[in-house]
């Protein structure tokens, strides 16, 4: 009973919040948060890189070399796709594992509650 009270006051609150969602909603929300954070991080890193390579970028603009500009854009989009895809994959795996663990713990807690409830009725 003490173990149940400790679970309910600690990790149980978080598990109940997680299990309040459907699995697909929980995973989808985690992916959305990851995509937004990754996009912001990529924009910051791209801005820093552009500031670092400002002289090279301005020389491309002044020369009006469209091919180099398109190649730079393709490299940036490829880097964004790889970065975003990697983080989304990792986030998807972590969200599924988190939901599975929370669901398992919640079901175990409910089972212990049912056993406790059944034992009190017998007495």
Task: Based on Cα principal axes, name the global outline.
Answer: rod-shaped
Alpha-carbon distance between the two ends: 16 Å
Report low-confidence residues grouped into runs of 5 or more.
Answer: none
N-to-C SSE string, H for helix and E for strand: HHHHH
Question: How would you characterize this protein structure?
Answer:
The protein is mainly α. The protein is built from five helices and no strands. The protein has helices spanning 2-9, 11-19, 23-52, 54-63, 66-122. Helix 2 (11-19) packs across helix 5 and helix 3 runs antiparallel to helix 5. The longest helix has 57 residues, at 66-122.
Give descriptors for this structure.
single chain; 123 residues; mainly alpha; 93% helix; 0% strand; rod-shaped
Compose a concise summary of this entry.
This protein is mainly α and 123 residues long.
Topology:
Blueprint: H1 2-9, H2 11-19, H3 23-52, H4 54-63, H5 66-122
Helix pairs in contact: 2-5, 3-5
């Amino acid at each position: 009973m003490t173990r149940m009270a400790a679970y309910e006051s600690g990790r149980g609150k978080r598990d109940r919040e997680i299990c309040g969602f459907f699995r697909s909603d929980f995973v989808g929300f985690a992916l959305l948060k990851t995509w937004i954070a990754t996009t912001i991080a990529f924009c910051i890193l791209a801005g820093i890189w552009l500031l670092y390579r400002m002289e090279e970028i301005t020389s491309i603009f002044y020369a009006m070399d469209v091919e180099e500009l398109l190649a730079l854009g393709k490299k940036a989009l490829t880097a964004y796709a790889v970065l975003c895809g990697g983080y989304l994959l990792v986030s998807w795996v972590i969200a599924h594992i988190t939901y599975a663990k929370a669901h398992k713990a919640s079901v175990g807690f409910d089972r212990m509650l049912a056993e406790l409830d059944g034992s009190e009725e017998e007495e």
